[in-house]
Design goal:
Keywords: Signal. The structure is a single chain. It is built from 4 helices and no strands. The chain has 130 residues and is mainly alpha-helical. It has 2 domains: 60 residues; 56 residues. The protein is elongated.
């Protein structure tokens, strides 16, 4: 019986020593993984910040700082919008043609452009459709 307890104690001691070394190696691996993950996160953050600054620079246009340039561009966009409205009325209301869908989508696109450019067109020269 003494031999059995000695063998059992030796096996338990060997198993506990093996488990602690395994835990140490595992914790070391996990911390390396976290460091690697942190480096990747920093790189991703740097990329996002760089993209943000590039987009902010690309979005700045001369009309952000020059009101007369902005007024001229808005006038041009309003003239183009009036053309699309006229063509939509001409091709959809007065004399329906196959071009109706093209001018409807073109006018919808012009609405988006005017909204993004923050232009307001007061003097519409054509009647609205529908």
């Amino acid at each position: 019986m003494k031999i059995f307890t000695i063998v059992l104690a030796a096996v338990l001691l060997a198993t506990s020593a093996d488990a602690s070394s395994h835990l140490k190696i595992h914790s070391k691996t996990v911390s390396e993984h976290h460091v690697e993950e942190r480096v990747v996160n920093q790189e991703a953050l740097a990329k996002k910040q760089d993209m943000y600054y590039r987009m902010a620079h690309m979005k700045s246009t001369p009309w952000d700082s020059q009101p007369e340039e902005r007024a001229a561009k808005c006038e041009d966009l309003c003239l183009l919008n009036n053309f699309w409205e006229f063509q939509q009325v001409r091709n959809c209301v007065n004399r329906p043609t196959s071009l109706c869908s093209i001018y409807k989508s073109g006018l919808a696109s012009m609405d988006v452009v005017l909204t993004v450019a923050e232009c307001t067109c007061d003097n519409s020269t054509s009647a609205s459709s529908e």
